[in-house]
Amino acid sequence: MIQPPPVNAQPRFDESERSYELFDLFPDRSHLGIRLDRYVASELSDLSRTYLQEMIGDGHVLDDGQSRRAAFKITPGQHVTVAIPETTVAEIEAEDIPLDILYDDPDVVVLNKPAGLVVHPAPGHPRRTLVNGLLHHFPEISIAGSTRPGIVHRLDKDTSGVMIVAKSDRAQTSLVEQWQGRTVEKRYIALVAGVIEEQQATIDAPVGRDPANRLRMAAVRTGKDAISHFTVRTRYADATLLDVSIETGRTHQIRVHLAMIGHPVLGDRLYATPKAIGIASKYGIGRQCLHAASLQLDLPGGERRTFEAPLADDLAEVFTRVSEAS
């Protein structure tokens, strides 16, 4: 987090107590002449165009330290700084968002998160998140000063699958301890680019922020330890279907690890290679082919349970197309 933007940004409201998330962007030759709003939108795809234009107008997007108009044309070599206001607790609203509930008791709720749904309010996504929906369907979940009430783990926006949410204090404590103790078994299904020859393998590589691009994670020596295991389920002509389990839960862990070994998740635009982009286009893949298939853990009462989320329809259709083409 950083302090508010420089005074020359001239924000139109009092934000002396607000925190920001900072992104540094560096246009290259391919961005010559692109409008400022379009450039930032291409680099920070999670931000809506409307929200981004409001940020530019409020002085939260600076070019070489100066506030510019949305139509300002970008030049290679410039330094674009984006300061995104952090969502505050007061902004969280209960919203009637449909939820696919797999299990529900007084302590926890287990659900099948659809692709495209952000888990909790974050910069650029103050509304229409899973948390907003949870507060509508389960108002007993206490916000307790957090923008992530009940959330003990998360899935990326475009990853579908099973999630568990704490509804009580004892559940929150129990689940956090299990995640910290690495006793939760997490299994995913991933469709990756290329044919993997090994039947099974373990990837043990620390994951941290990519020093060359703050928007990405990477396997870096200074990162946090991260361990992923995979087993080949099916090999296709130019893709491989994997069962993946993870011992840790670092941001983008599976996506980073599979990209690191040269087999990025198909449809993952952040870590894609040109080859992977071509394969995804061939099969009409619109989002990353990653699904959280199951969670095995202890409920607060002590019972060991396994919860499974059925494969999303869009992924099932993709797998069928890939299979028929092989």
Return the string of H and E elements. EHHEEEEEHEHEEEEEEHHEEH
The helix/strand class is alpha+beta
Helical content class: 10-25%
- Shape designation: globular
Work out the strand percent: 25-35%
CATH superfamily of the largest domain: Pseudouridine synthase
The CATH architecture category of the largest domain equals 2-Layer Sandwich
Residue-averaged pLDDT: 87
Strand elements, count: 15
Kindly, what is the distance between the CA atoms of the first and last residues, rounded to a whole number of angstroms? 48 Å
Q: Name the poorly predicted regions.
A: 1-17
* Helix count, DSSP H or I runs of 4 or more residues: 7
Under CATH, the topology of the largest domain can be stated as: Pseudouridine synthase
The CATH class of the largest domain: Alpha Beta
Put the structure in a nutshell.
With 326 residues, this protein is of the alpha+beta class. Helix content is 21%, strand content 26%.
Task: Describe the protein's architecture and organization.
With 326 residues, this protein is of the alpha+beta class. It folds into three domains: 7-86, Structural Genomics Hypothetical 15.5 Kd Protein In mrcA-pckA Intergenic Region, Chain A, CATH 3.10.290.10; 89-181, Pseudouridine synthase (2-Layer Sandwich); 182-304 and 314-326, 2-Layer Sandwich (Pseudouridine synthase), CATH 3.30.2350. It is built from seven helices and 15 strands. The protein has helices spanning 36-43, 49-57, 130-137, 169-180, 253-260, 274-282, 313-325, and strands at residues 20-25, 61-63, 66-67, 80-85, 101-104, 108-113, 160-166, 185-193, 200-204, 207-209, 217-219, 227-235, 239-246, 290-298, 304-308. Strands 5, 6, 7, 8, 9, 12, 13, 14 and 15 form a nine-stranded mixed sheet that branches. It has a four-stranded antiparallel sheet with strand order 1-4-2-3. A two-stranded antiparallel sheet has the order 10-11. The longest helix is centred in the last third of the chain and has 13 residues, at 313-325.
